[in-house]
Specification:
The chain is of the alpha/beta class and about 290 residues long. Helix content is about 40%, strand content about 20%.
Amino acid sequence: MSRSLPPLQALRALEAAARRRSFSRAAEELHLTHSAVSHHLRALEAELGVELFRRAGSRMIPTAAGAQLAERVRRNLEELREALDATRPGVSGVTRLELSVMSDFASVWLIPRLGDFYDRHPDVDLSLRMHAGVTPPDPYPFDIGIWHRRVEEPGFQIRKLLDDQVVAVCSPALLARYPAFRIEDLASMPLLRFSRRSWRDFFDAAGVAGDEPERGPVFDDAGLLLQATVAGQGAATARLQLARGFIERGELVQLGQVRIPASLDYYFTWREGHPREAAIQQFYRWVKAQLAN
């Protein structure tokens, strides 16, 4: 007679606790109590006869045996989810990817182009989750991340998407108020501010004598900053990759030719050994091709 398997909830607790390095965070994810997760894992250790976790300060670190088992459980849970999806009516053959992406990159650059991706890959569905902070979120719940910084957790593939530059832009209507515009006139224009970027850096590169503006709207989201700029509310500094579409459509005008390096990059991230790596690679190659264009 074949040996019985441990309860599925115990295996899910193992996978979540190993991934999140915390029984409490695993309990929140699984909608269980801390004591329930701890009980599941103690029972699993007793059944297997091996130690699966060791405490390191406030974190629960999986042992080598625990990490190896958790990874195999994770892969089998992914395969089980795919099998269930393939059984549901109307979803057979569709690969679903959960994408966490910087909100400005999504709203300004990605979403307007996604129709092309779906035309080329009709068997892939993307679920977008917006992220606004500079520090990446917990990477494990997502199939793909496009974030400003590299993930520090081990076991992830990370690809830098581009080296971007920052330019100054304004609307044609605002520029019309300065018929003989010179780059030095920037200091006298109404200026929109971005919380993660200083006008001072651009002024220094452009040789403009001006101080960092103390008045004017401040934006945390670069997409909203660009919308305000298109509406003629002021000049702004913006990533060229995000502003390019607005410039090509005539909604924005680049002020001068000065460009400075962007202080934050975009990184494309996914977990090593992902069961849907083929679809992830399709999306990655499409993003790179779009950026190259």
